[in-house]
Structures are given as structure tokens and as C-alpha cells.
């Protein structure tokens, strides 16, 4: 664990989410695709949210998206996050369709707006965990 992340709550990969976390470790944003109906989904789950199929695979997402909603966190949930406030927690509509919640980084909270184009970046928290975050796209 890097010192900057000491005291934070780390995600715990499961059999269902392991593919996602392995992708993040390799700096690849992976989302699930149903092999029956081809529906794309995020967050990882054991069944397709469209057809209830149980045959799911992983596909590489572009990492491009748009902010569909956000909030600025000004009060840390614990001391471990105190140095990061204020920060932006956003719903990101991926170019492929699914929506994911993530932190926006490398920007001022006041510069965020709904519709802002963003791209994925990865932050290593430990040897096992790398977190997908988003930042404004370089074309903004």
C-alpha cells in the first residue's frame, strides 16, 4: 500500500468483480457484455441486467465518457481522505452506454459541469488494487 492511501477502505475483489480489478491493474477499463443479448453493463454482476442471462464476458471500454451528474465532497468521510477534499464524485456515462460512479481528478471542482467530456486514468493504491478515476478529456 502506498502511504497516500493508508487508512482508506480498499475494495475487495470477488469472483464476480475480479475481471474488472485485473483490468484496472493493467490500466484497462473493462465492462461486462452478455454473450446472449450483447448488452453492456457496469457494475459487475453475475447476471445480465437486460435478459437475465448468466453468460457474461469482459470487453475493453474506450475510457471516454461524459459527466451526467456530480457532487463536490468538501468534508472527508474519514481522516484518510482529508488531504483530498474538496473532490468531485461523479456519474460518468461511458461512450459504450453504461454509467459508472467515480472520482474526477486533475481538475478544479468549480470547472465541472454536466456534459463535460472525460477520460479514464488509473491510480495505484497498492500492489493488488488500482482505481479507475476520470479527468477532463484533453480536448476540453
How would you describe the overall organization of this protein?
The protein is mostly beta strands. The protein has one domain (13-136): Beta Barrel (OB fold (Dihydrolipoamide Acetyltransferase, E2P)), CATH 2.40.50. 6% of the residues lie in helices and 36% in strands. The protein has 1 helix and 8 strands. Strands 6-5-4-7-8 form a 5-stranded antiparallel sheet. The protein is globular and about 45 Å long. The termini are far apart. The mean pLDDT is 94.
Can you give keywords for this protein?
140 residues; mainly beta; OB fold (Dihydrolipoamide Acetyltransferase, E2P); five-stranded antiparallel beta sheet; 1 helix; 8 strands; 36% strand
H/E element sequence = HEEEEEEEE
Approximately how much helix is present in the residues? under 10%
Mean pLDDT: 94
Instruction: Provide the low-confidence segments as ranges.
Output: none
The number of distinct helices, counting runs of at least 4 residues, comes to 1
Q: What fraction of residues sit in β-strands?
A: 35-45%
Number of structural units classed as domains: 1
Assembly state: single chain
Query: What is the SS-derived class?
Result: mainly beta
CATH topology: OB fold (Dihydrolipoamide Acetyltransferase, E2P)
C-alpha-based Rg, rounded: 16 Å
Q: Biggest sheet, open or closed, and with what strands and sense?
A: 5 strands, antiparallel
Shape: globular
Strand order of the largest sheet: 6-5-4-7-8
Could you give the count of β-strands? 8
Highest-level CATH class = Mainly Beta
User: What is the level-2 CATH architecture name?
Assistant: Beta Barrel
End-to-end separation in angstroms reads 33 Å
